[in-house]
Structure formats: C-alpha cells, structure tokens
Design goal:
Helices cover about 60% and strands about 5% of the residues. The chain is mainly alpha-helical and about 500 residues long. It has 2 domains: about 450 residues, no CATH class; about 35 residues.
Length: about 500
C-alpha cells in the first residue's frame, strides 16, 4: 500500500494518462458490437440521421430498424415527428455518422464514447481541485473508468452520457470560478463557461435545468456567506452592531447577477440548438402559429417563437404525464442501490462462447449495472459524510454533494414517472467524489494509518476485480448461460 501513496512524484503526471488509457480501452474496444440498434438507439440514431440530412427530426416507418442498419434509409418520410428531447445530443451523435457512415454502428457510438472518456478526465481534474491530490484524483478517475454504468452508457448512442459530460464540464468550470480571485464585476469568464456547458446539457436533455438551478443557488449562497462573514468581521472591528442591510442588499444583488450570468447564456445555447427546426418548413409544430390565434404577451412574439412555445408546452405535457409501466422502470429511491439495472441488449446462440458448458445456450447481454462494490461503498461513505456535516458544517461536503442535489434529488419528487436506473450517469462523478472523500477521511483520521492504507488498497483491487468479473455483461461478450447467471446476484437484476 505504501507504493500507492508514496511513489515518486515524477509518476504523478503519468497516473491520469494511465487511467485515461484504461477508460478509452473499456469504452472503445469492439464498439461496433452489437451491430444493431440497442435500446433507445432506435430513436436517437435515426433522429440524428434525419437531422443531418434535413435539419429536423422526421418520422420513420414501422420496422425500419432492420433496413436502417444495412444502409437503407427509405423508411424516412417527410412527415414531422414529435420529439421530446432537444436536438443537441442527436447532432453530436450525427457527427460520428457523418464521418463513418450511417450504417456503421461504430459511427453511431464513437462521439458518445469519446465524451465518456472525456468525462473520466474531467472527473479526475475536478477531484484534483477538490482533494488537492493527483493520486486521489487518479483513484477517482479509475473508479469511474471501470464502473459499469459509465462503460455501458459510453458504448451506446443514447443522450445520457452526453448530458453527463456537459454537467461535469460545467462543474469543472464552476470549481475554476471558485478558485479564481473574487470579482464584483460582470466579467466572470469561468462562470460564463460553466453556463455555456449547462446550456449544452439542457439542450441535450431538460434535466440539465436541475443543474442550472443548483449551480445558481450554490454560487448565490457562497456570495451571501462571504458578505455575511465580512459583515461580522466589520462588527467586531467597529465593536458595534451594524444594520443587516449592509450584507443583505449586496447578497441579493449578487444573487440576481449570478442568475442572469448563468441563465442568459444557457437560454441562448438552448435556443441556438433548435436552429434546424427554425430553418425548416416541416418540423413538428413549426407552422402551428399560422393556423392558431394566440392572446396575451405571446401574440406579440414572431410566429416562429409562438410555434416554438407551443411545441414546448406539448413536450412538457408528455414528460409530465409519462406514467406508462415498463419492465425496466426503476423507482429513483432504488437507483443508488443498483437494484433494477436496465437490460440494453440480449441475444442467444447454440455454441461458440466463452466458458461454454455442454447443453447450455450461449448468451450475449448488455446490462447497465454499476460495479456494486463502488456503489454500495459510496452509500456508506455518503452516510458518514452527511452525519459528519451536521457536526462540522464543512463547506467542501456541500460542494461534493452538489451534483447529487442537482442530478438525483429532483427525481425523488417524480417517483410516479416512468424512469430508468441508468439516469444515474448524470451524477455518477459526484458518487465517486463522495466515495473518495470517505476513503481519504478514513486514511487521514485513522488511528492505524498503515492498516487503513492496506484496507483501502484492498478495496480498490476488489473494485477492479469486480469490474473484470462484470465486464462481459457490460459489453455483450458471448458467455455460457450458466456463467451469465453467476452475474445475476439479485433477482431484480434479471
């Protein structure tokens, strides 16, 4: 264990590169498998194709998947399609298709995979700023790199890893802003970059708005606390009570300024992501205002914006009323326990697989299951950190939990909605931060530091071995059915 924390400093710069290489291999190896549209790729990949060629999502005919994967796109019509997610993520998926072709599964997934690798890098950079240690940052990156949720979502052309990339990018810029010299001016470049990243997140999925709200609230609270502490310091120096307005007014002004500094760029990026829809003549609801009369302030807007607003009302209605049952629907309360992972892919054949046993079918499965050792240990670490916070009111703990507040807590108020466990990818970096904070606190405050280091070292190896064990069901490697069943520790995983 000594070699883990007491290696020569000259190796520090190589650790992140080694972690990045691991993350890239796990996400890029055999990326073109399966050679068919997996889970919701049936929507996002074909929408990406439509955006590339028409600038807007159009409808596809029934059973068009089989033809699409062979390069036959005749199933695409000229009729508009009602799409419930903003277009930016699909534009990014389309970039890979533009380079590698629309019939190439590698092309569908490469951009998402690269953003997944980049998310590991950003997680390390954020951890380095949070914990002031390159080595703990490397461990954070390693745990994210080898976790099943990150691997599966990076190898599938869905929107969630794209969302996850943009929110951790926004958090990175937020940390840079908090490290920078305070300023009262509107020129806050790091905060602006964070807002742009959050705008891209929101232009991928609406759940990016939760991070917008959380980041605004956090920055406003930080500024308020600074004003309050300065106010108390001045009271001590003047040996008298000063009016509360001397810190309340600047705090309110700062909060309003922060609100506009974040929301305006976010809104601009979001609207710009719909440029294809605005330039089209046959996007869904594109001409709604031409046949419907509006009233109030909406009537003073250009017809294109009236139609844009109507479309968003319908999207909101869809999300608010999405309560259909789904075999892999998962209550948000269970997400962090990894109780109901989503099966993305399943196939069988009679022979030709790893660890094949006589008379047993071969299976290829892709399940968005997190490494249970990482997730279950993070729950324990979170419990300890929360309990400690009530005693210490440690500010860093709040910062570490910020992504959980933004990415997880809002879903607890939407438990009647149809949701899936893989949504955790949006806040997984903060799960890793919580785990690292717990491990580091254990090491720093242990009465037996050598024993603590050895146990932490053993835990990291347990996580690595766990990922080696589960890797086949994260990437669809062909294995015997009995071997697949060995991975199904809980009945709810099947």
């Amino acid at each position: 264990m000594k070699t883990l924390f007491r290696i020569s400093p000259k190796w520090d710069s190589y650790l992140p590169l080694a972690v990045l290489a691991v993350a890239a291999f796990l996400r890029l190896f055999n990326l073109a498998y399966p050679g068919t549209l997996v889970f919701d790729e049936t929507y996002y990949v074909k929408d990406a194709y439509s955006l590339l060629h028409h600038g807007v999502e159009l409808s596809w005919g029934d059973k068009s998947d089989a033809a699409f994967i062979t390069g036959d796109t005749s199933g695409l019509s000229n009729d508009p399609s009602f799409i419930v997610h903003p277009p930016l993520g699909k534009w990014l998926i389309g970039l890979g298709m533009l380079v590698f072709g629309s019939a190439n599964p590698f092309g569908w997934r490469i951009v998402v995979a690269l953003l997944g690798v980049a998310a590991v890098w950003l997680t390390m950079k954020c951890a380095e700023m949070l914990f002031k240690s390159k080595r703990w940052a490397a461990i954070a990156g390693l745990l994210f790199a080898i976790d099943g949720v990150g691997i599966v979502l990076s190898r599938t052309a869905l929107l969630d890893q794209i969302l996850g990339f943009f929110v951790i990018l926004g958090y990175y810029f937020l940390l840079k802003y908090l490290e920078a010299k305070p300023t009262k001016s509107f020129y806050r470049p790091w905060l602006l970059l964070s807002a742009i990243a959050l705008g891209c997140a929101t232009a991928t999925k609406w759940s990016g708005l939760y991070f917008v709200a959380a980041f605004i609230a956090y920055v406003a609270l930080v500024d308020t606390n600074k004003n309050y502490q300065l106010h108390k310091k001045l009271e001590v120096e003047s040996e008298g009570k000063l009016p509360d307005r001397l810190w309340l007014v600047p705090s309110i002004y700062s909060a309003i300024k922060t609100f506009f500094l974040i929301t305006i760029p976010t809104l601009l990026i979001y609207v710009l992501s719909w440029t294809g829809w605005f330039l089209s003549s046959n996007g869904y609801d594109r001409n709604w205002a031409d046949t419907h009369k509006t009233s109030g302030l909406l009537s003073y807007l250009p017809k294109s914006l009236q139609s844009f607003w109507q479309y968003h009302k319908e999207i909101y209605g869809f999300h608010a009323n999405l309560h259909e049952s789904h075999p892999y629907g998962a209550n948000p309360l269970s997400w962090i326990f990894m109780l109901r992972p989503t099966s993305f892919f399943w196939d069988q054949k009679n022979s030709g697989c790893l660890l094949e046993t006589k008379g047993t079918l071969c299976t290829s499965a892709i399940t968005a299951l997190g490494n249970p050792f990482i997730w279950w240990a993070a729950i324990l670490a979170a419990s300890v950190l929360i309990g400690s916070w009530f005693r210490t009111r440690d500010k860093k703990t709040v910062l570490i939990f910020l992504g959980i507040v933004a990415g997880y807590v809002p879903w607890l108020f939407l438990m009647g909605r149809t949701v899936f466990e893989f949504y955790v990818i949006a806040f997984e970096p903060w799960v890793i931060f919580i785990l690292i904070a717990g491990l580091k606190a254990w090491k720093d405050h242990s009465y037996k530091p050598l024993l603590a280091r050895r146990l932490i070292f053993s835990f990291i190896w347990l996580c690595v071995l766990g990922s080696v064990f589960f890797y086949p069901i994260w990437t669809g490697l062909w294995e015997g059915y009995d071997f697949w069943r060995l991975h199904m520790w809980l009945p709810s995983w099947i």
